[in-house]
Amino acid sequence: MLNAYYLYKLSHQLYKWHIPIVPKLIKLLCFLLYNSSIPYQCEIKEGTRFGYGGIGVVLHKRVSIGRHCTIGTNVTIGGKSNHYEVPKIGDNVYIATGAKVLGPITIGNNVTIGANAVVINDIPDNAIVAGIPAKIIKYQSEEPSI
């Protein structure tokens, strides 16, 4: 099925093969279809999904996103003024609709980021964060509930 992630994977593979213009055209197509900016230079690992095809998602070109993440609509993951580094997202991270992840930060594994949260600090593994600026509101237990 055609969606922003599929277009990203295609353009990223062509970029790795050093094919010059086609990745840029695919990125433009993704922008026109989904109103999203998902650069072919960023690193998005397998199993990651975009809600509703990736509508409104904006990623910085140096962003690294782990395996099996879910990214909602209108999510921004990018840099901050006067900082070269950009966010690094771990595995199994859920980023809800409208969230912003900004600056030279690291998001751990198994993290849930609430809707419209603004994350500007590092988040440890197994945390649930929400708010502006985002604060840890709970830790997910690793034990199965009965």
Automatic annotation (TrEMBL):
<keyword id="KW-0808">Transferase</keyword>
<dbReference type="InterPro" id="IPR011004">
    <property type="entry name" value="Trimer_LpxA-like_sf"/>
</dbReference>
<dbReference type="GO" id="GO:0009001">
    <property type="term" value="F:serine O-acetyltransferase activity"/>
</dbReference>
<comment type="similarity">
    <text>Belongs to the transferase hexapeptide repeat family.</text>
</comment>
<dbReference type="InterPro" id="IPR045304">
    <property type="entry name" value="LbH_SAT"/>
</dbReference>
<dbReference type="InterPro" id="IPR001451">
    <property type="entry name" value="Hexapep"/>
</dbReference>
<keyword id="KW-0012">Acyltransferase</keyword>
<keyword id="KW-0677">Repeat</keyword>
<dbReference type="InterPro" id="IPR005881">
    <property type="entry name" value="Ser_O-AcTrfase"/>
</dbReference>
<dbReference type="Pfam" id="PF00132">
    <property type="entry name" value="Hexapep"/>
</dbReference>
<dbReference type="InterPro" id="IPR018357">
    <property type="entry name" value="Hexapep_transf_CS"/>
</dbReference>
<protein>
    <submittedName>
        <fullName>Serine O-acetyltransferase</fullName>
        <ecNumber>2.3.1.30</ecNumber>
    </submittedName>
</protein>
